[in-house]
Fold this sequence. Notes:
The chain is an alpha/beta fold. Among the domains are: 28-159, Rossmann fold (3-Layer(aba) Sandwich); 344-419, Luciferase, domain 3; 427-540, ANL, C-terminal domain (GMP Synthetase, Chain A, domain 3). The protein is built from 16 helices and 27 strands. The strands form 7 sheets. It has a 5-stranded mixed sheet, with helices on both faces. Strands 16, 17, 19, 20 and 21 form a 5-stranded antiparallel sheet that branches. Helix 1 packs parallel to helix 8 (216-226), helix 2 packs across helix 3 (61-72) and helix 14 packs across helix 15 (477-494). The protein starts with a helix and ends in a 7-residue tail after the last strand.
Amino acid sequence: MLHSFFFASADRRPGDHALWADGRYYTYEEVRARARGISMALAPFAGGPNRNCILFAHRSACAYAGLLGVLAAGMAYVPIHARFPPARNAAIIARSGARVMLVDHVCAPQLAALLPLLPPDLRIVMLDARAWDAAGGNAWPPPSAPFVHDAPAAWPAAVGPDDLAYLIFTSGTSGPPKGVMIPHGSAVAYVNAQMRRYPCEPGARFSQFADLTFDFSVHDVHVCWANGACLYVPTLQDPLYLAGFIREHHITHWASVPSVLALLQQFRKLAPGAFPSVKMTLMGGEALPKGLAEAWSRAAPNTRIVNGYGPTETTVIVLTFELTPAFLADASRPVVPLGRPYPGTEVVVVDEHLAPVAAGAQGELLIGGAQLARGYLSANPLDGERFFARAYPGRACRRWYRTGDAVSESPDGLLYHGRIDTQVKIRGNRIELQEIEQVVQAASGSAQCAVLAWPLDEAGKPIGLVAFVLAPADESLGEMGARAARIRHACKQSLPVYARPDRIVCLDGFPINVNGKIDRNQLLARCAHLEADADGAARCRSGTAAA
Length: 547
């Protein structure tokens, strides 16, 4: 099972460092003892059909011991983030059906805003005394004592490959966040595939950059512990801090979205030879510009650089491509490929009818194999269409996931050509534009609205969002400003920071295409000509001519 990697390493080397967090080291034995106590506190909630446990913890030793404790109790962890709006976290908690929530001292101060929105029967377990103090002392019933129970004979609890390991919520095509159910078997298949393809040297030091609400964290945490390595948790995600963190702790394994490297480059932290300790770099979550990879290879001259691809629904990463010195020096290969699948994973490129395309032609990527998610929690019909059963010639898999990504085959593996739907990624965070449009439309009261990813950076990746809403032609600037304020307030209440529009634009008419739909290409073409007023609202006299 997923947690077995940690406990096997703890059996082999109990005195070795497993974790650096909260400004100190923790050995494998120390983390195991904490996880054991937490799992005992969760024992009353581990029975029944729903064994989900909310993990409201952030970059603390308790967060990682809590994650292990949840798994060892035979439950699945459901991470939520203190920087998400309380309404969004409350919706995730309600949809998960969890009966218990673990809270650390970092997230405890956020409980005051979250508690009124929670189910009355949800049990809150403070992970340490500091969490209790940060939550306001006597404002809640005394916390349970998760570290005083003796472990039963059968510990960790028995679970099987089909039991859930974790449940991560992403943007949903129908609006509300959708929960992706990852069983132990899928997660274990990923860790094993990663270890086979990129074996780790003794004494490795892994960075833990991705938040637990981002499935890239599964790589950081579990691949690290499977190798008996030490996990180093930076307290900040600021590029100035990160550069010093890598050097101070002699990080050997770095994993992040490319945008993090872009920030380091922006702040001039990628000087040649800046990070000689880094031996392995894994990029994922968004497209990797070749120029950025070249800059990182100069800053970390001893590293292997691997570009990874994989939706949450396929457990972290299923395709990889290593950027060798020969590839970086070859000007005829300007695009970094997605690469080839791990053993146990199969891919098919199909047209709009789900029929395989000709070799080299562009189409939608389908993924099947051992790393596939069980599906979505309480899936609606639209989400359910993402997973389907079908036999393809030459493929052993019979169950597939529709990624919505346009790809084509090349000698280096698959090449990425963008999205075929309205899903985008901003700074590595996956966003469904329809979800944002629902919030904007409800708040604005407009008959029409559209949210677009704009502007784009030099590599063509979106770095922001702009929302267009329909407003009467005679609406005053003050009325438009009030409308924009209502939209911003609604977005703040319902959406994470990265999913909130940067600009609100009022139109007296939307451009329409020949099919009677909003012409988003015309909207994008006009984005560069928008002029915002002091309230952040703008008017663009568009007309409604068909294009």
